[in-house]
Fold:
Amino acid sequence: MKANRNLSYMDSVHRDGRIWGIVVGGVILLFPALVMLIFGTSPDLKVLAKGIIATAPMYWAVGLVEIFTYVPMLGAGGTYLSFITGNISNLKLPCAIDAMERAKVKASSEEGEVISTIAIAVSSIVTTLIIIVGVVCIVPLTPVLESPVLKPAFDMILPALFGGLAVVFISKNAKLSIAPIILMLALFVTVPALNAGTVGIMVPVGVVFTVAVARIMYKKGWL
Amino acid sequence: MKFSVNHPILFVIVGAIIAVVLAQSVYFLLKACRRAKELGISSATVKATVSSAALFTVAPAVSILVGVVVLSKSLGIALPWLRLSVIGSITYENVAAQNALTAAGLSGSETITDPSVFVTVLWVMTIGIAAGLILVPFLTKRIQTGMLKMGMKDKKWGEIFNNAMFLGMISAFLGYVFCDVGLVAKGETRGLIPVCVMVVSALVMAVCGLSAKKFRIRWLEDYALPLSLVIGMASAIPFTNLLG
Structure:
């Protein structure tokens, strides 16, 4: 981990992030091939093609847009970790935003980069450990996790998460928040296809729209 | 080797992959903590960031575990354990698995017994969301460098740009909270449940923030988001009984 004296912290984060990303990404992508080898089997190509056609075009497009949307918010270290460990919009990003807000550091600063990385790394470690404990204890835990009494609580994680986060950001950016909130409310209330399954696709739409509105308001001196 | 969705070898391989992913998180955590010290960020701030992030993660992580249980019915435990520990969220993994299972003529409640079907589902889940995995190592530096240049050119706009991005994301999720409100016109009040949960969570956050400032309770500020999340989630239970 000894830093090269010629490299800045940010450069070393990118170097390490790339190495880890390629290694871990490679391992994840090779897992299906390893399973094929071990069990001496191969995929049904027709079914594979059908499954990929039904899944990949949308998620590749969303994935590409997500990179451009989330990288500026997550920071470099946070990005390299989050795109490996997943659950970005419903866990890692809110966690990083809250951490930077409380530490009073800006996302674009090196302090923001460091705090965001710490929050996302801790969140990734805790998630992994909780899932390990859950997998080990899956038999006794299954009735609890599938309990009809608790189901509403797990179903409502996003409203509970973004209700709290919205208070912080809307109170600090009241003028700027009006237009995107009105747009998103109008879209989600009137377009039936927009729901829990498609909200991820609307994040880049919301981001691009809000940045455009912010630019106009900034140029006009309203911010 | 005779195939089973819960074959011990699958657990060994998945365990090894997860250990590598865990090592990556630990590596970046240590690196960032070291840099925080160099930058003069107080150890109290770092500790508060660690403890708050850990506490905040518990409830969402348990909900991810629910996803493991759901997918384990057809895919066994090892594969959902891997897929939900790395890359995917439950929304994606469920869709990808269902697409593959449907293409194979199976339902989500039948346990896979054919290894060919298992690897087919595995490939679909892996390839379907590989864009981020493949492109992030090559695009992140370029995007970040561009952002830094913009921030240096006009500092105020750089700050507004960042806030606008956060607000854009939050507004999309706020819109989602209201997506079933239209059902109320048809006499179905369940569309109000997410709205009520969001209001409770927002109120808890506001009360925590104001109390922390007024009475100078630092820990309340640190744990305001985890608190609002858990109390918001808990409020969904009575709201569902009332409106569901």
Notes: Residues 1-136 of chain A form one domain.
